[in-house]
Design a protein that fits this description.
single chain, alpha/beta, Spore Coat Polysaccharide Biosynthesis Protein SpsA, Chain A, 2 domains, seven-stranded mixed β-sheet, 14 helices, 29% helix, elongated, disordered C terminus
Amino acid sequence: MITTARRTAAARNDWRSLSPRALGEPPTTQVAVSVVIPAHNCQHELDLALAALDAQSHPRELIEVVVVDDRSEPALVLPQRRPAATSIVRVEGGGHGSGHARDVGARRASGDVVLFLDADIIADRHHVEAHARWHELIDDAVVLGFRDFVDVEGITAEQVGSAVDGDRLAAVVEGRPKEPHTWIEQLLEKTDDLVTDREDLWRAVVGASVSTRRDFYESMGGFAHFPRRGIVDTEFGYRCFTAGGVIIPERAAYSLHQGQRSFAIRGDEIARRRAPLIANHIANHRYRPPVNGRQWAVPYLHVIVPPARATFITVRNTVDDLLAGDFTDLVVSVVCPPDHPEADLYADYWQSDGRVRLVPEAPSTGFPSPATMVVPIGTRVGRTAVGGLVTRLRAWTHGLVSVSVTGLDAPVEVWATRALTRAVRAAGDSSLRACARDLFGEAWVAGVDHGIGVESGASDRRFEDGRFHAGR
């Protein structure tokens, strides 16, 4: 039996620090791959895609293909040339969407890895193997394949299968113009192939060829079931990255895309129609206008106020400070166990504030918000403190900014959520702080320099006799 101890973490997005085996070398561990293909009214394209998958270098017994027929009319059928373990699942009902179809297929998949390919992708012979070798190393790889856009009119499934089997995919389209995925190449050039650490590396994720481990896919919520507006790939990449995924551009996972990409044909219209939805679900200034006080489906900052032995008034002061600050793109999770003696006061006071969530226990991270802040009860927060700390975090020199506050037993913590989520998976017997320090770096700042202090005894008297007394 082939086994190995997989590494569970890489620093930041430094995928080059990992050393996958060379293509063709015996694997150190067997990785079963489930290829999920959403398909809609594309029988010929699907035939070519499946013929290519039938000639992969990855062991045949470790490849499963799940085709999701997304309401095609007439219904799609499986061609003669296809991998042995290929099945087709039909989605019934109203309109169609690739995110929903991909998720349906992923939930049916049984492999260690889910590899999403579009139905118009003709995979090179080493495509699946090139994806799989990264998942032999780490738990949170998000591997991206590459493609050239080319006209394949007149090419048959038999020709594709024969060419891929002989590792001669280029020969089947020899002499035909090919176009690279230009904007992806431009992003890779700007970021040294995604090694330069930025908070928007997820923009490179395209669903035409992307893979994750199945347990990672499930933990970050999978593909969203959005309408067909060009958002599902970008939003999926955003959540993969925020969940601590290492995004790896794998040029050896090469393919041909059958025809032009839809965005190149009608990109302005796609961008216009997807903008409102993407602003709600991707917390990034590139897509979200700076509207002070606006509430979004996914806030930029998720503040966690853990439980403590303190009066309701002390808790109220801490939370209200956070809500009154100049940084408003946030939500505050206040831990209030059901048996808390003042639980009714929590509910009475915050029941109508959409930015406050009363939770029975503290969430482990602020996912899917890209920033997570932990604020101990008794902390007093100045009006500009949260915004200043978020700006400090977004300098992206450290994944954790710890704020020392005299009088508090624990620091205020401001995390890049991806640093926290990766540390939660990788820490093992070490502390989250130590793990995050190793993987992303930690900076310490003084609370007094950021307008953060501690509750004083006098402030508790501002709410006596049921009325608020300003100035006490």
